[in-house]
Amino acid sequence: MGGMIVAPQPLAVEAGAQVLMHGGNAIDAAVTCAFCQFLLSPHSCGVGGYVILTMRLADGRALGLDAPALAGSKVLEEMWSDRVIRPNPDGWGFFLEEKVNDCGYQSICVPGTVRGMATILDRWGTIPWADALAPAIQLAETGFTVDSHLAAGWQSEPKYPEACSLLEYVKRNDEARRIYLKADGSKYAAGDTLRNPDYARTLRRLASAGAEDFYVGELGARVSRDLQANGSFVTADDLANYALRHTSPVRGTYRGYDIYTSPPPHGGPTLIEILNILEAYDLGGMSHNSPDYIYLLARAMKAAFADRNPHLGDPQFVDVPLEWMTSRRRAEEWNAIIDADRDIQVSFAPPEPPDTTHVSVADDDGNYVALTHSLGSSSGVITPGLGFMYNNSMVNFCPWAGHPNSIAPCKSRTTGMTPTVICKDGRPMMVIGAPGATRIITSVAQVIANVIDFGMPISEAVWAPRIDCQGDLIKAQARIPEYVCAQVHHRHPIVRLPQSHGGLALVHAITLDPDTGEMHGAADTGAGGMALSV
Asked: Residue 412: what pLDDT?
């Protein structure tokens, strides 16, 4: 079997490609790639994280699976309401005293990744569970070369004093320091070799004992003892009772294309709403990234977030008006406001941290898989001897009561994760997704428009400069000229980011040529990923 795979980490892409080359399907390749990503991007994803899947199988079914990070049973809705310093001005959650929601044991939610990956492979894959873990085990044992992206993360300082740097996550935990700092306490640099034999042993245990060992077996016991001994809200019963959510993708249409994407509390409904608003306009008749186009695009984004922020939450806890948010009628109401150039007000809501990862895979049989998985930014916590970091998903909850995204036991919080598959006349033509928090939504929308409205090949569509607007400010990559931004500024505040590439979500996508059946892939140039055809 052949196909194509795209992800931010080349070594993980290679592992997934090898699976395709040896007869595995897209599901096999995605899971194998994801386990390697755990090692290569330790703050972005891993055994202690969560995962959302959107896929279109060769038999024509569009399916999804959500393995969210859930708040522990010991949380209370207003337990942190008196510890709020301020919202993060960039939207990455709230700053709390002592960073309790961001770093350390109290920031951890119940992980869903292991059960999620095992279920994905068992239901739709073809290779054994142990085979999918084998490349990651080898990476952990023999080590890998630290790339410039990971090394730069450990070098960077937080923009705000109340925020955590990646290095602070490491330094706050004894095990993390032992694994992710050298013996002399210095940081790993690009080109250094990093080994994690503890993680290898954990993965080998999962390979032999099965995924359920993480929840009710030896691994689960070690996890729960450590979490409970150190004040986590997650209990042994939370692990044992963890349940996946077998959700259907949210479906929309855009100019005759069928869009299948992630359900609430994730980014899919907002993506559909942006596309619904944009469909009323002849984007292809506009000059790409002209002042008029940027202004219109930003207003559509802003309108969709004006609906998202006060309404989106875990549908098992709150009534999410999904049909209304994704309806043509609601889009037409926004079109009238945009056409009249009336003001759009967006209330604040905390999205997720930007450190997430993604893999897009397609095989020759017609399986298209978009898999986004994350740790948030990681809690920095590593249980002695296990080697992996846990998520810090408590940072994403609203610390005040009464919001759809407020804290509650066993609740999932909102994310921007938007794994998406697009079909035309019943045939897949694109699989797309990204890391990058709620900027995933706006970046994916732009790439879709670049392909469908402007006729760009996928590489050009992914690499084209992008913007983001979720409130009172448009943020533009530095490759959008200042003279363009100056014209936009007469109508709406706009700033240029310091990054020419990156700074927004990192889109990874594959398209299928309907005439030739040829696949084309593109990895975002803001990171070190690649697209590999086999």
From this structure: 96
